[in-house]
UniProtKB/TrEMBL annotation:
<feature type="transmembrane region" description="Helical">
    <location>
        <begin position="285"/>
        <end position="304"/>
    </location>
</feature>
<dbReference type="GO" id="GO:0016740">
    <property type="term" value="F:transferase activity"/>
</dbReference>
<feature type="transmembrane region" description="Helical">
    <location>
        <begin position="46"/>
        <end position="75"/>
    </location>
</feature>
<keyword id="KW-0812">Transmembrane</keyword>
<dbReference type="InterPro" id="IPR000715">
    <property type="entry name" value="Glycosyl_transferase_4"/>
</dbReference>
<keyword id="KW-1003">Cell membrane</keyword>
<feature type="transmembrane region" description="Helical">
    <location>
        <begin position="184"/>
        <end position="202"/>
    </location>
</feature>
<feature type="transmembrane region" description="Helical">
    <location>
        <begin position="110"/>
        <end position="127"/>
    </location>
</feature>
<protein>
    <submittedName>
        <fullName>UDP-GlcNAc--UDP-phosphate GlcNAc-1-phosphate transferase</fullName>
    </submittedName>
</protein>
<feature type="transmembrane region" description="Helical">
    <location>
        <begin position="134"/>
        <end position="152"/>
    </location>
</feature>
<feature type="transmembrane region" description="Helical">
    <location>
        <begin position="87"/>
        <end position="104"/>
    </location>
</feature>
<keyword id="KW-0808">Transferase</keyword>
<keyword id="KW-1133">Transmembrane helix</keyword>
<dbReference type="Pfam" id="PF00953">
    <property type="entry name" value="Glycos_transf_4"/>
</dbReference>
<feature type="transmembrane region" description="Helical">
    <location>
        <begin position="158"/>
        <end position="177"/>
    </location>
</feature>
<feature type="transmembrane region" description="Helical">
    <location>
        <begin position="214"/>
        <end position="233"/>
    </location>
</feature>
<feature type="transmembrane region" description="Helical">
    <location>
        <begin position="254"/>
        <end position="279"/>
    </location>
</feature>
Amino acid sequence: MVYIALIILLVGTELVYFKIADKYNIIDKPNSRSSHTSITLRGGGIIFPIAISIAFFLGYVSWAVTLAVVMVAVVSFIDDIKPLSQLPRFVSHFIAVGLVFYELNLFSESLWMLPVVFVLLIGWVNAFNFMDGINGITVLYALTAIVSFSFLPLNEASLPLLITMGLSCVAFGFFNVRKKAKTFAGDVGSISMALFLGYFMIKTIIESGQFGFTLFFAVYGIDAVITIISRLLKKENIFQPHRSHLYQYLANEMGYSHILVAFIYAALQLIINILVIYMDARGCLTLLFMGGFLVLLTFMYLLVRNFVTRKMVLRNY
């Protein structure tokens, strides 16, 4: 009954936000780099920090994690409305990561580990934010990760929190996983969700001692890293908006349905996650398996990307 009431509350909150966004013109206008063609309400992902705030009041999550997620969400929401300089965004991310470190007691670990984890977490947050480009892809991918974390026995105590965040994805997805989306997540949604998922990934690795669980983010991670390398080789500014991810090629240049592409990404990641969970249960989730599997996935990704880009070139002739 609690979760039924929660989903009703979350959907209602989203509907209230739509009225506010419409009144104050919080919209996303399409441009040459956009994957959409019509004006859409921005910031629907505000439901994610609202959900974790509800989880805090229900006693499902600590104040440190809640504050970290809400803080980056507030700064990102302001940035969604009126673009900010890099400084306030970086400061909010820096403090938020510090709160995550505090929650996970990482300050007691070796000093060399802190900058490594800091860079990886900041990189993940920004990669996840940049990947928010077509209808459904962010929320379906986030829901896949949350469901996967929920199936790990070591996360049993965190199930109420994971279910709450999963329900927020369902509520948002109802308005986003459509041919014509009612709303986009905006930075407020993608960055807050990225931080939450990053926190949960680090927590899971620490408690299990298994680096192999990073494969839960493999599809997004490989696409993001290869795209960044490709853009650097072309001497492009990697901090500028673009349409160079494989999923953008598939949806924009190849003409596949946004929803189909989003479901393919989520489904591929879910298959990988099921394999990872199975290998962990068998005691076979070794670093050798992780490394070899990443190489295989990267090779397969490059084959598909090369095939798609060649088809794009041929279509332009």
